[in-house]
Fold this protein.
Amino acid sequence: MSSVCGAAPGAGAVASPPLPLPVANNKGPSYRSSLAGGCLADRRLWDKLPAQRRQGSAGTFDWFFGYEEAQGLLLPLLQEAPAACPPRVLDVGCGTSSLCTGLYTKCPHPVDVLGVDFSPVAVAHMNSLLEGGQGQTPLCPGHPASRLHFMQANAQNLQPVASSGSFHLVLDKGTWDALARGGLPGAYQLLSECLRVLSPGGTLIQFSDEDPDVRLPCLEQGSQGWTVSVQELGPFGGITYFAYLVQGSN
């Protein structure tokens, strides 16, 4: 996946060229055609996916990879959180990914997870999965103090659902990539909102298959005053991914 890092919003940002389609788990031909045929920042595209997925056997749909592949990075970060209360985790553009549900059901430590997405269809599906709708078994927390919520929200404007400095960990799995297809100003606005809601000692993780030579300059430009680093993940399904970490200091 490739992109072009332009100026920050309001400074003549350069739009990204069309990006190759990323790999998703639990996908069939209908997923490929839906994703390839539409703008990834168009809510109507993501509204269609839960209905398509119900025709198959999977309860979640993961772009790139799922919770199992990410847990080795996530769990140590949660262990470092202050012990006074469960660390709050925000997944921006959660869709119907297994990140939120995996953290809730499999994390051995208490965690308070909020998944937000601009697709009301995706949010309704995940709430149904959580509550055991349509005859399913409700999800059980991995720790009795853990909590999980899903809400409809625009990741570029989190004011209605998230106050400043309120999350220890913010996750972005492919959301920057989707927004960058419509131009980098939207991606930079997403980054700004993620950093606004992040606690001073917290961590933002962007999961992507985009090259560090492309992504790191963008993040360094948009995250001045924060520490930016990258870790290689995988390969999963023959593809190498990257976790881009933006971290503050206490």
Summary: The chain is about 35% helix and 25% strand. The helical segments are 29-36, 43-53, 67-79, 98-106, 120-131, 175-180, 184-197, 212-222.
